[in-house]
Amino acid sequence: MNKLNTSKANDYVYKTKELELHVLGGLQLNKLESLRVTLSIEKLQKGKSVLNVLRQSVDLYNDNQVEKLVRKCAERLEIGTSIIRKALQEVTKTLESHRFLLNEKQTENQKPYTKQLTATEEKAAIKFLQSKNLLEKTNEYIGKSGVIGEHVNRLLMYLIFTSRKTNNPLHCISLGSSGVGKTHLQSKVAELIPEEDKIEITVLSANAFYYFNRTELQHKLILIEDLDGAESVLYPLRELQSKKRITKTVVHKDRKGTTKTIHLTVEGPVSVAVVPPKKVFTRITATGASCSILMKAKNRTNAL
Question: Which residues, other chains included, contact 294 with Cβ-Cβ below 8 Å and sequence gap of 6+?
């Protein structure tokens, strides 16, 4: 049975007894209604170097294009049309199956990763959660992780971040003079949160929140380092905090060119942590974001 060699992503090789076919440039995974490829077709000859090679871009799902290619190959390579037609049918079926596998793999890779605790890890975690002076021990471990100083703020911020798993999570706004370490504190405490549970944003456009997948933000921690110049995002951010969902209506054209109105909905709840400049802070407090805790960072030199 002939096999497709996919060791080179941009040069698949498929061999029959008479022909060697190369798929140059790999496969397109986004257009399943067509199978457009660039083929390099060679006739195998024993003891002779191959000088006559036919290269052609073709949609293997288009019967007219395939038939033209069959006749062209038969004339150029001096080989029977039945042999070429059979080879193209075989390579089409093989490429089709391979593309389905690639799509499944891509879909699997795009699924959110969730770490599963082992039985030993779960037992140790439960034991720790049931221990006395839990908050003191938690704060001690936060310090050992590298968060120096800010003993009260670091524990409070960590508790706010863990509230993302609840139906009514908390939010925090870090305040302080320039250079006292507001962003540093938020970044260091955020390192204690699993990567799959947080989204770090530096620059945010006005409509950015509406284009996440419907449940992509659910029970996530959103870390925003700088809202300077992005005041327009405060309204959808507030709605996501208070109503736990946002919806935007847009006009969209389908493949046939028909204009339709669609609704983009993103669901929460989310926990939001922001380090705003002073001019944006005034606007944030005016929006009245629910369950937000203001944190004032001390001078890190004094804290040490």
Answer: 172, 173, 175
Q: In the structure, what pLDDT confidence band is assigned to residue 153 with cuts at 50, 70 and 90?
A: confident
> What pLDDT is recorded for position 93?
92
270-274 and 220-224: which strand pairing? parallel
pLDDT score of 229? 52
Name beta bridge partners: 252. Answer: 260
Per the listing, tokens 């497709």 go with 4
E strand or H helix that includes residue 159: helix 151-162
Could you tell me the pTM of the whole model?
Answer: 0.62
The secondary structure of 200-250, three-state, reads: EECCCCCCHHHHCCCCCCCCEEEEECCCCCCHHHHHHHHHHHHCCEEEEEE
- Per-residue pLDDT, averaged over 65-72, amounts to 92
Q: Which domains does the chain have, with CATH numbers?
A: 4-110 (no CATH), 127-303 (3.40.50.300)
Q: Which amino acid is at 93?
A: K
Mapped onto helix, strand or coil, the DSSP state of residue 56 is strand
Cβ(135)–Cβ(256) below 8 Å: no
pLDDT of residue 279 exceeding 70, the answer is: no
Contact yes or no for 266/143 (Cβ under 8 A): no
Q: How far is CA 161 from the centre of its chain?
A: 22
Pairing of strands 171-175, 292-296: parallel
- H/E stretch holding 110 reads helix 81-110
Which of 80-94, 102-116, 236-250, 285-299 has the highest mean predicted lDDT (pLDDT)? 80-94
Dihedral angle sign, alpha carbons of residues 196, 198, 269, 210: negative
